């Protein structure tokens, strides 16, 4: 889907935390003719990049903020559950004439729904400590008084970061757990959904919290099988979760402790966004062809 995004060209974006999602957003918004400055924790050669590292108290100088109208924060919570951006830059941001602030959050805040659908109107019910920390950050952003919009994201994948890399790097674990599903989102749909919302903001009702997820949550096994099929390789025999559990890292184990389907009805039905990759097959085909 192509957007003219003519209403956005005059804006100046600052993307805080230019990792996987942030760099995709920056690249796309620049292709539309917008200015985008990006942060990382260490120096790099990109003239549009600056250093921001809350852990080392390295903050950008005043001039970097000149004319910024839009901010997208892709930085996770710190270990105490505080938001690194608000902890270091809140006063600075409050003195700017910001039209919009986007914050990338996670659907982990919904906790375990035992495989049921969950939407923005459901109360957050974090199960893991990290999800509680994330909910704290969402709260901090909402209470900041900034014009913030929060995007709750499930597992993010895209070219360069998908099951294909796990297979190539021999990091894949083929695990089966009955009735377990995961939601996902292709990185291009995070960017394009946000651009769609910004480009149409005068005609759409503003929603502060929006899920960005694809249409078809499914098992991890289906996804892995599909990747092996595209690669023309035979998938190893799946191991039952109960048998594999002990060998998994605590982080890997924790992902299997929650089971939910994330609804995108607000974004895709009420607000009218059309997904580029409505399911893992379409999204992974794109990753396969881009590699
Ligand atoms: N990965 C997933 O599947 C997933 C799912 C749902 C939600 N999320 C969340 O969505 C957001 C974007 O995800 P992503 O996978 O695109 O992120 P990512 O690639 O891990 O990028 C995170 C960015 O945050 C920066 N950063 C981290 N700590 C910082 C600090 N203390 N001070 C300044 N900058 C800091 C990193 O800097 P450097 O560039 O210097 O490393 C990096 O640019 C994150 O908040 C993530 O937790 C991720």
Highlighted features:
291 residues, alpha/beta, Rossmann fold, two-stranded parallel sheet
Overview of this structure, please?
With 291 residues, this protein is α/β, with parallel strands linked by helices. The protein has a domain at 6-157 and 185-215 and 261-276: NAD(P)-binding Rossmann-like Domain (Rossmann fold). Helix content is 33%, strand content 16%. It has 10 helices and 13 strands. The chain has helices spanning 20-31, 84-94, 129-143, 163-168, 187-199, 220-231, 241-244, 250-255, 265-270, 280-290, and strands at residues 12-16, 35-40, 49-51, 70-73, 100-106, 117-118, 148-153, 155-157, 175-176, 184-186, 209-211, 239-240, 261-262. The chain has a 7-stranded parallel β-sheet with strand order 3-2-1-4-5-7-11, sandwiched between helices. A two-stranded parallel ribbon has the order 6-13. β4, α2 and β5 (100-106) form a beta-alpha-beta unit. α1 crosses α5 (187-199). The longest helix has 15 residues, at 129-143. The model has no long low-confidence stretch (mean pLDDT 96). NADP nicotinamide-adenine-dinucleotide phosphate (NAP) binds at residues 17-22, 40-42, 52-55, 74-76, 84, 104, 106, 153, 155-156.
């Amino acid at each position: 889907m192509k957007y003219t995004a003519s209403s956005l060209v005059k804006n100046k974006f600052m993307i805080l935390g230019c990792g996987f999602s942030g760099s995709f957003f920056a690249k796309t918004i620049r292709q539309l003719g917008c200015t985008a400055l990006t942060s990382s924790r260490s120096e790099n050669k990109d003239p549009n990049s600056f250093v921001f590292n809350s852990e080392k108290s390295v903050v950008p100088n005043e001039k970097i903020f000149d004319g910024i109208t839009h901010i997208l924060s892709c930085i996770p919570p710190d270990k105490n559950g505080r938001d690194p951006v608000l902890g270091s830059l809140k006063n600075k941001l409050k003195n700017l004439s910001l039209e919009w602030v986007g914050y990338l959050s996670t659907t982990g805040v919904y906790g375990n729904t035992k495989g049921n659908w969950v939407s923005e109107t459901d109360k957050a019910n974090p199960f893991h400590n990290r999800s509680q920390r994330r909910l704290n950050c969402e709260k901090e952003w909402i209470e900041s008084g900034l014009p913030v919009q929060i995007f709750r994201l499930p597992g993010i994948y895209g070219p360069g970061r998908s099951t294909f890399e796990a297979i190539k790097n021999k990091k894949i674990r083929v695990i089966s757990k009955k009735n377990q599903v995961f939601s996902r989102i292709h990185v291009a749909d995070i960017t394009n959904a946000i651009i769609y919302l910004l480009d149409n903001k005068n005609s759409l009702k503003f929603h502060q919290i929006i899920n960005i997820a694809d249409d078809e949550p499914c098992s991890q096994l289906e996804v892995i099988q599909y990747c092996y099929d595209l690669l023309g390789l035979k998938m190893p025999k799946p191991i039952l979760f109960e048998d594999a559990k002990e060998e998994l890292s605590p982080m890997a184990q924790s992902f299997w402790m929650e089971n939910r389907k994330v609804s995108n009805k607000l974004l895709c039905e009420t607000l009218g966004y059309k997904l580029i990759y409505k399911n893992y097959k379409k999204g992974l085909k794109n990753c396969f062809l881009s590699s």
